[in-house]
Amino acid sequence: MTIRVGQGVDVHPFKEGRDLVLGGVKIPHDRGLEGHSDADAVIHALCDALLGTLALGDIGRHFPPSDPRYRGKDSRFFLREVTGLVRAKGFSPHQVDVTILAERPKISPHVPAMVAELSSCMGLDPSDISIKATTTERMGFTGREEGIAVWAVATVRKTEGR
Fold first, then answer.
1. Looking at domain 3-158, which CATH architecture does it have?
2. How far is Cα of residue 13 from the mean position of the Cα atoms in its chain?
3. Quick count: other Cβ atoms within 10 Å of Cβ 138?
4. What is the 3-state secondary structure (H, E, C) of the chain?
5. Residue 105: is it exposed, middle or buried by C-beta count within 10 angstroms (0-12/13-18/19+)?
6. Residue 2 and residue 158: Cα distance in Å, rounded?
7. What value does the mean pLDDT of the chain take?
8. pLDDT at 65 > cutoff 60
9. Cβ distance 42 to 11 under 8 Å?
10. What is the pTM of this model?
């Protein structure tokens, strides 16, 4: 079996007047993340990780922020499209591991809903999706609650018969 690995990182600052969306889930918070689309840093990092598995560039190459079609776009669209690109190359998502860095809000209550959303978008069993969160103990921009950072790792496997 052929397995390939990719990693992705995404960072967004907080912005007043926006919803906070992570992993396709709206999370109650006093601010959202700034960005051209819905600024879902979990999905953006995951898209980059999946694209990296097959050396397909990054999310900005496929969905440029300069393109008005993507303004305010639900990032689950990007994840479905990227999963389609991976499948078109003869591979399928195998496992993903996501780490969210944020002082607030508390992420753990929302992890099951995020796993369900990502599972639906990628056609991946929920048991193959890991999402966890940590703080930076009040250090750096995440510690000062200026934004959120996300790291993602993905593996894909060659689809049988290809």
1. 2-Layer Sandwich (3.30)
2. 15
3. 10
4. CCEEEEEEEEEEEEECCCCEEECCEEECCCCEECCCCCCCHHHHHHHHHHHHHCCCCCHHHHCCCCCHHHCCCCHHHHHHHHHHHHHHCCEEEEEEEEEEECCCCCCHHHHHHHHHHHHHHHCCCHHHEEEEEECCCCCHHHHCCCEEEEEEEEEEEECCCC
5. middle
6. 5
7. 96
8. yes
9. no
10. 0.95
- Bridge partners, 99 (sequence order): 132, 151
So what's the pLDDT on residue 162?
Answer: 56
Q: How far apart are CA 151 and CA 127, in angstroms?
A: 19
Length in residues, the chain: 162
What would the mean pLDDT of 54-64 be, rounded to a whole number? 96
- Bond into 93 cis (ω within 30): no
At 21 the pLDDT is 98
